[in-house]
Amino acid sequence: MLNLEKNFFKKRILIYGLGKSGLSTYSYLKKGNAISLFDDQIIAKKKIKDSNTTYKEITKKEFDCIIISPGIDINKCKLSRFLKKNHKKIYTDLDIFYSRYAFNQKITITGTNGKSTTAKLLHDILKDQKKDVRLVGNIGNPILLEKKIKKDTLFVIEASSYQLEYSKLFKTNISIILNITPDHLERHKTINKYVSAKFKLIKNQSKNDIAILNTKNFYIKRELKKKKFAPSILKIEKYTSDKFIKKIDNHYFDTDGNKENLTFVLKVSKLLNLKNNMLLKTLKNFKGLSFRQEIIHNSKFLKVINDSKATSFSSSEKLLKSLKNIYWIIGGLPKKGDKFLLKKNDCKKIKLYIFGKNQKFFINQLKNKMEFQSFLNLKTLIAKIFLDIKNENNFINKTILFSPASASFDSFKNFEERGKYFNKLIKNYIK
Predict the structure, then answer these.
(1) What is the b/e burial string over 121-158, where b = at least 16 CB atoms within 10 angstroms of the residue's CB?
(2) In what order do the strands lie in the sheet with 34-38?
(3) Is-contact 322 334, C-beta < 8 A?
(4) Residues 6+ apart with CB under 8 A from 74
(5) What are the distances in angstroms from CA 339 to CA 84, 99, 291, 319, 342?
(6) CATH topology of 4-91 equal to that of 102-285?
(7) Residue 281 has what pLDDT?
(8) CA atoms of 264 and 239, how far apart (whole Å)
(9) Does position 2 have pLDDT exceeding 60, yes or no?
(10) Hey, what long-range contacts does 77-85 have (CB within 8 A, 24 or more apart)?
(11) What are phi and psi of 176, to 5 degrees?
(12) Would the CA dihedral through 110, 112, 113, 116 be positive or negative?
């Protein structure tokens, strides 16, 4: 047993948060430890009857470790005072994972936008090159549920700011920070704290490790000027050329956001000495992830893109820059402090369609930049778009872009449900 593993063996452990992450942690640690479980939600507590404890019981107990789920904000939870008092004992499932698989190669990806797509693309490339690779973290399986791990098993990990914020031990061989724009400020409060959470990814790296960073990004560039970090820093200052994109022959990589993701993946591929012919084959066949710049229809004069995952202005803006004659659908629960930064000149090619309960927010941000229409619901909105398209020049290439730039929780359970509903509506007009 590694010394690090001893941190989580024969210990008194509190697991706080009983979602996917918390339940997988419980499953992993329940043998050999005295486990206590807690969740703010009564429904979550009912998932497991074993070892559930009350608030009063917890505050009286002494714990060796406290494992918190990514969704737990220690400043806004029932155990807030207790957690602040025992801050040094707080760990995450990333820490437990590292303590078990310290010697396995790990490539970890974070950033505000593009994490999931980049992680999936890199995983598919490595899999096609006959590597024993696992896709885990914020995408794929919870990180502690993977089985049959060998010495040469390679992990591609997607890590969010929530996962990184309270991690202490986690270390990765190759770290990737794609981009940083203001996000999740309702949790992190300030952009500096959000940046700091992202940079936890490279903080624990050693001089033998590698960090690949987007130095075109203002916040990443600023952080590098402020601090020195141990790993070798590989800077991404420009995206993959259009000439290379043409070799791939996949329109998925036409947009700036996906060019950015591809550039990082190619850098890793070079570091790992992957075979170019197999690499190009994977890239040619890559279709992306559902609801992330997903092309659901592509005919001679009309393209329809489902980008339901876009939950902030920044996640929509790169895509807007990459397209022409756009019918942009926006609406949902806006992020705290979110601002639309595209200049008026960039908006001439955009017709805006707003839906939902928070129309005033979007109208105030966008009314002086582009023409808009507002609707109570998405169904009525879609009907109007197709009517507008019918009444306009049908020999000009048009794009219907569903990129809501906001969270889904005003009307939908999550972005997946929102994306599925959009697809269902579109099918009524496109056979």
Answers:
(1) bbbbbbbbbebebbbbbbbbebbbbbeeeeeeebbbbb
(2) 34-38, 12-16, 65-68, 90-91
(3) no
(4) 68, 80, 83, 84, 87, 90, 166
(5) 32, 40, 22, 16, 9
(6) no
(7) 93
(8) 9
(9) no
(10) 77/16, 77/40, 78/40, 79/16, 79/38, 79/55, 82/58, 83/16
(11) -130, 125
(12) positive
Which residues sit opposite 306 in a β-bridge? Answer: 294, 402
Measured between alpha carbons, how far is 351 from 236 in angstroms, rounded to an integer? 33
Q: Is the separation of the CB atoms in 222 and 192 below 8 Å?
A: no
Give this prediction's pTM.
0.89
Model confidence band, residue 138 (pLDDT cutoffs 50, 70, 90) = confident
Rounded to 5°, the CA angle 15-17-23 comes to: 70
d(CA 124, CA 130): 10
Question: Where in the chain are the domains?
Answer: 4-91, 102-285, 294-427
Pairing of strands 294-298, 302-306: antiparallel
DSSP symbol at 345: G
| 222 vs 182: which has the higher pLDDT | 222
- The two structure tokens encoding residue 298: 């592509």
Residue 71 in tokens: 């969704």
Beta strands in 1-137 (DSSP E): 12-16, 34-38, 65-68, 90-91, 106-110, 133-137
pLDDT in tens, 57-84: 888 889 999 999 998 999 999 999 999 9
Superfamily of domain 4-91: NAD(P)-binding Rossmann-like Domain (3.40.50.720)
Token pair for residue 53? 């404890």
Band of the pLDDT at 1, cuts 50, 70, 90? very low
H-helix or E-strand containing 28?
helix 20-29
Q: How long, in residues, is the chain? A: 431
What does CATH list as the number for 294-427? 3.90.190.20
Q: What is the mean pLDDT of the chain?
A: 90
CATH 3.40.1190.10 describes domain 102-285 = yes
Does the pLDDT value for residue 296 go beyond 90? yes
Nearest Cα to Cα of residue 267 among 237, 293, 287, 243? 237
